[in-house]
Amino acid sequence: MSTYKLVGLSGSLRRDSTNTRLLYEAARLFDAESFMLLNLNFPLYDGDREKMDGIPDVVRGAAANIAEADGILISTPEYNKGPSGVLKNALDWISRVKGKPFQGKPLAVMSASSGRAGGERSQLVLRTFMVPFRTRIVQGPEMYLADSSNQFDKDGRVTGELYIETLQQLMDNLRAEIAR
User: What pLDDT does 118 receive?
Assistant: First the structure.
């Protein structure tokens, strides 16, 4: 079996983010050779700042890691019926980096949220955000982790059988898309 390098983007900066935990669990189920969670603690995008100071090193580093990855994982919470500002800001900055690091990359999206829909709306909006990046989005199964703070055991593993099966199938489909 081939080994792959994955990178993850979490739409939450919280220390104990369930979206970040979901990314680590997805990478574990994928059995990636390596997984790197990208630091998305970027300054707010500002065209004037970009013109004066250029693109921040943290953004360039994230874009380089995306460009080098075989596959990408993105997980977002749902804030006011959409993805987090943290994630949108990161995508806005990364879009300014030359070389189109996302283009053609296999991408699996998922969401974890405290609500009963598990971030379904945020994931739908996220998929539209990714259109200009021209990624190869894995279409399913859709992974929505509802009541997310109660869905992990003490070791950070997803506990619900249906969630585990869904996440495993999504990772199997991502692997197939990478190998394509």
Answer: 76
